[in-house]
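Suppose a classmate hands you a notebook page containing two proteins, each written out with its sequence and a corresponding row of structure tokens. How would you begin to make sense of it? This section walks through that situation. The first entry is reproduced here exactly as it would appear on such a page.
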Amino acid sequence: MNEMKNISIIRSINYSRSHQQRGDTMYEIIRCYEKRHAPRVVRRGLTKEQAIHHCCDPETASLSASEEVKRAEMLEGSWFDFYRKVIED
């Protein structure tokens, strides 16, 4: 199972790199926690479609995540993911 997930991540990274080289707008996923002051970046270099797909996954918010994921993430309290456009200088 983890091998398939790793293959999916590698394909996603390669797809994102090809879009970056073309100058497409890229997005990143931010995770906000209830107890942590600063949010953290979870993933970078995504297309808008990839970012939307990630955020639609029920596992990316504490209210809808499975018990297994909740146990791993709840140290910092409730959480949710959102995406934002990467602003290039």
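The notebook's second entry, a different protein, reads as follows.
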Amino acid sequence: MANPNLNAPTAVYAANTFVALTSTSETQLISNASTSNKVYLVDSVLVSNVDGASAADVTVTVYNAETNTGTGYRLARTVSVPADASLVPILKDVGMSVKEGQSVYVTASAASDLEVVAYWKEYQ
């Protein structure tokens, strides 16, 4: 498992993903393969409630595995996102890294109410 030197990377790539939480099951947001030779520096994660009438809760969980196996550690747990509002559980000022073999999953309390956008930089 490599952990690239962030002071002298061989390459830096911008990355993002967009996920609609269509169920109340954990949904993969970010996964860094155990053989990627990369570290991801997450700049932001934004959760938007697209339901105009009801709040929905979001949970953001980090795993020390490529998938949601083993023990999950919550960055946010059942945090309410009001109707037609947004929540930013990860900001660049605080940030987080996702090293090889780690992943981030999100869970909604109500299906099809929340959408999630994540932005990060991949260091190689």
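A careful reader of the second entry would note: The first strand starts at residue 12 and ends at 21.
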